[in-house]
Amino acid sequence: MAPRTSARSAGASRRASARPPSKGEQTREAILAHALGLATRIGFEGLTIGRLADDLKMSKSGLFAHFRSKEALQLEILRIAGARMVEMVVKPALATPRGEPRVRALFERWLAWEQSPSLPGGCPFMAASFELDDRPGPVRDYVVQNLRDWLDTLAGAARIAVQEGHFRADLDCEQFAHDCQGIGLAFVHASRLMRDPRARARASTAFEALVSASRSPAYTPRSVPAAAAGGRRR
Fold first, then answer.
1. Domains identified in the chain, total number
2. pLDDT at 2 over 90
3. According to a count of CB atoms within 10 Å of the terminal CB, is the N or C end of the chain lower?
4. Cβ–Cβ under 8 Å, residues 139 and 128
């Protein structure tokens, strides 16, 4: 998820907070919150208006009035997921010090997001990417754009780490982002499919190796966790 997505979501939040939500808007958000958790468990293709209506004890016609189609429902679920990821991962990470601490914050917060109790099936974008990779259409396009935004965010954080002298000047920042994403995918497989109790530790070990290989010889990191440090200029 890229910072521009964060700005867009923040703007929407400010507009929404200017007036109290209507009853219809509250109902819609409650439906989407439930649908998001359900989609991570049963998949986006398995999530239909009929299934959601049964789950929420609502009429199909009432739900249809909110979303009009299964595709519109899927897109709205992903929109909610994207906004939550910005709030839980991107914004807090951008508030940490520039350079390696920020890179670490992005990675650690993404791991926490993937294991969030509000997402029983894990990161919705991971789930959707496995399910929709060969199904062209607006929903797949949305997932692809979000993945590109996230990779851009990781690469941008790595570039800042280079500018701060934390990472090597010759670092390929796009490759760094690619490798980070690979660690994330391996973590999802190990933790969810294989139920490996050491999945988190293995992901951390792989990330430490990547950061160590990327670090400038002139930089010695402080031992303070990134989350404990105060914010600096962005």
1. 1
2. no
3. C
4. yes
